[in-house]
Amino acid sequence: MKLAIIAHPRFPIKSPYAGGLEAFTGGLVEYYQSVYEVTLYAHPDSEVNCNLKSFQIDNSQYQQYPDIVENDFMLKVMADITKEQFDVVHNNSLNPIPILWASKHNIPMLTTLHTPPYSKLKAVVGLASYSPFIHFTAVSHSLAEAWKPFINDKVEVTYNGIDLKRWQVTKNPQDYVFTYGRILPSKGIDIAISTAQQMGIAIKFAGPIADKHYMDDVVRPLLRPCDSYLGHLDHHSIKLQLANAKAAVFGTRWDEPFGLSTLEAMATGTPVVSFNRGAFAEIVSEGAGVLAKGNNVNSLAAALEASFSLNKNDVIKSARNFPIAKMCSEYSNILGRIA
Prior knowledge:
Blueprint: E1 2-6, H1 20-32, E2 37-41, E3 51-53, H2 59-64, H3 66-84, E4 88-91, H4 97-105, E5 109-113, H5 119-128, E6 134-138, H6 141-147, E7 156-157, E8 176-180, H7 189-199, E9 202-206, H8 212-219, E10 228-229, H9 235-244, E11 248-250, H10 260-267, E12 272-275, H11 280-283, E13 289-292, H12 297-307, H13 312-319, H14 324-338
Parallel strand pairs: 1-2, 1-4, 2-3, 4-5, 5-6, 6-7, 8-9, 9-10, 11-12, 12-13
Helix pairs in contact: 1-14, 3-4, 7-12, 10-13
């Protein structure tokens, strides 16, 4: 089968990944390229083991005029996809153009919904979902429910997955907790730091700085001498930090659609501590972590304290519900059905 994958073009698909969407796409490509004839449409600096097609992106222009640059990229992508005549397209961009184009030109397309509904995509999804060629999946049931009012079709759920073997560690908890992800207000790094401080325990954190003002004006002033920012780490380095962390703390301010970092932490046997919002309750089963009963630092600190008594084997057992092979198999079944 001749398969096209569309990635969100903002960041390259390469390690260290800019975020969960890029890590998801990288894992998907690695599986697909062993089964199908795959072409990935992504940022030109991507590093993947399949045919990569791209179009020049001016990163400075992208920062200044993101919609214009992204729309231009996607128009070129869809024109090329039409010319190449793929059997099916797996769309993982966050842009409305691929969905509109595919519905107009009768191109079989599966779009994975990775984010909560937002204005520029809601109307397009609602119109395009009447087409028999356009299909949708969401990465969690909570996300599917959020999108349900805007889609005139069933929204299937395919949970994200990871290569669990790559996250195996020898667990040796030390006196610190860990958090990681893109550093911007929605990820709540400052909340995680304040929670650790309330518990009197050090915190280490990592991730690309997506909002410099937030990092400089909010996060850095909170740091004690025992706290440390480790920079933008690859998966191997993140795994080493998790191996020695007592818990992984996520102070997310939004309804997390899935949260690959949650699953990665669990796969190392590291308990997850977070607010009970978004998909956390679907992923963090009993014994794998503790979800705060409130939505503030005090409740997150209480959850963190409770997490220290959890058994690493119970945490790992929960992670085993989300192997990447299962995720890719479910996607393959859908693609085969709609191609």
